[in-house]
Write a structure and sequence with these properties.
This protein is an alpha/beta fold and 369 residues long. The chain has helices at 29-38, 55-58, 64-76, 81-87, 102-117, 147-157, 174-180, 222-238, 266-276, 293-307, 318-325, 340-343, 356-366, and strands at 6-9, 47-49, 122-126, 163-167, 186-193, 211-216, 244-248, 282-286. The protein has 13 helices and eight strands. Strands 2-1-3-8-7-4-5-6 form an eight-stranded parallel beta sheet, sandwiched between helices.
Length: 369
Amino acid sequence: MLQPPLFIGSEIYRNSTYGSKHPLAIPRVSTVIDLCRAQGWLSSANYRVSPCAKPSALTEFHTPDYIAALQQAERDQAVSDETRQKYALGTLSNPVFPEMYRRPATAAGGSMLGAELIRDGGIVFNPAGGTHHGLANRANGFCYLNDPVLAILTLLNAGLDRIVYVDIDAHHCDGVEAAFRGSTKVRMISVHEGARWPFSGTLDDDAGGAAFNLPVARNLNDDEFLAILDQLILPASASFDPQAIVLQCGADAVAEDPLSRLTLSNNSHWRAVASLRDMAPRLLVLGGGGYNPWSVARLWSGVWATLNGIDIPDLLNNTARSLLGDLTWNRAAGKQPPRHWIETLRDVPNHGEIRPELRADLQHIAERI
């Protein structure tokens, strides 16, 4: 009998922010932890504290000079023009802030711990993970480190040689693809909004045979996502006969996120989680993007419930509703949040037609599966 799913978290995320004007000024992981505890879904038995990864562990992927520069920037709380240009630290996307090494190193430590915990089988959820843009020698797209790459390398170092990485974030996983281009041991599957930063992951970009990329049009609906799940994600995963699946479950593809124009409900993410949960003996689920505090907290809490086979309630209990009611957001939508953002986890499904362009793209990519 395998142990029940494990949740990896840390208190470092509670009061740490990229700065008041950054999209990551919002509380995310701390709210998920509090919400799951309020619902009785988290206890000392299934919660693990994330370690802060040491530089020696991070240099399994990142260059030593970059890690040293990141640590120095945290110590100095400033960077030189040369460091900014060379390592992309101290930019609008990747600003200097008090925990700029410790926070991403804790997320990376959580993903590497998660990979170790599932070495012999099991399920782990690290919502702080999913920083899929980080490059070996520089920061990129809100990501100082690349924890999905570090987690996959941990699994490879444990002797696995068939790992599927599925990414349903609204943005393409350019850092992960760069790390495993041409790999015969890692299969990458990414569904992301087309014509959006980082403008990579085109339909014909197969990363040297290692990747399936599906850029999708804005206003992607739940029925279209279900078609993608059934015709791309599940068959391309199953045909690799994976020993482990790493799922990056970015919450920025839902309708109310400010940094994408996709219109999924959180039901789509939960269906992906439920469909992949039993396909391999090892599953590591990571967070990722998500810039509306309510939608992120509700979606990732629902991921944890789904991993545990818990029925998501129609109404949250009073403690959970109070937590969501206390959230604030400086965007217009945060001034008067709709009631369902506070009272329930589940969105109303967003049904719609499957557009001919998507059908054609799925047929085109199916020829490679």
